Recover the amino acids of this structure.
């Protein structure tokens, strides 16, 4: 399970509830693992967003991924057009690089013993 967490104080307060729900699923015998928490809609120029980033990383250092997805107008434009960000426009938006980093970080968490023969990211689409 990958949990996206918006970089806002109210969202940060939901983490204990999410962790309790996952523990409840495991107690019922469900095979569920938490791959990590990805901070979403981050903005290093906004004090509140930055405080949430710092608090999440300090409270849950092993759960919160290093990679975060920044707040970017490209998401809004793609959403308004009803198109995935990767397919919006002639060239990928620079923010797409965050998803490449996220994929690489998740691959290391999920498959730590598997070595890649090269450093190219895995393609989600052929």
């Amino acid at each position: 399970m990958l949990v996206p967490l918006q970089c806002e104080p109210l969202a940060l307060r939901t983490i204990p509830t999410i962790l309790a729900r996952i523990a409840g699923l495991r107690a019922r015998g469900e095979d569920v693992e938490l791959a990590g928490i990805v901070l979403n809609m981050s903005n290093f120029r906004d004090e509140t967003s930055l405080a949430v980033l710092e608090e999440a990383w300090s409270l849950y250092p092993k759960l919160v991924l290093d990679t975060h997805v920044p707040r970017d107008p490209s998401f809004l434009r793609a959403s308004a057009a009803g198109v995935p960000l990767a397919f919006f426009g002639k060239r990928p938006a620079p923010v797409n690089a965050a998803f490449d980093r996220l994929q690489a970080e998740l691959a290391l968490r999920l498959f730590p013993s598997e070595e890649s023969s090269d450093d190219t990211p895995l393609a989600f689409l052929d």
